[in-house]
Give the backbone structure.
Amino acid sequence: AAMVVAESVTHDAVLGCVRQAKAPNIESVEVFDVFRGGNVPDGHKSVAYAFTYRATDKTLTDAEVNATHARVLDALKQGVQAVLRE
């Protein structure tokens, strides 16, 4: 998921939002790209995260993963005022 956040938003703040979402089956959250400039407003950065979802007892369905991911993205919008990039 790529999102634009204020320059002051830290990785720890993003992880805190993910934890607060209490979304099930999140195995890992990793940042893989940070971009500034271009069409990203001054004082902001575009950050791309890879979320890995896994259940130990079953194979997750697309619907389960999508619902969990939506919950995480909502938490990021509220917690760090993230604007999702399409």
In short: The first strand starts at residue 2 and ends at 6. The chain has two helices and four strands. The first helix runs from residue 11 to 21. The mean pLDDT is 94.
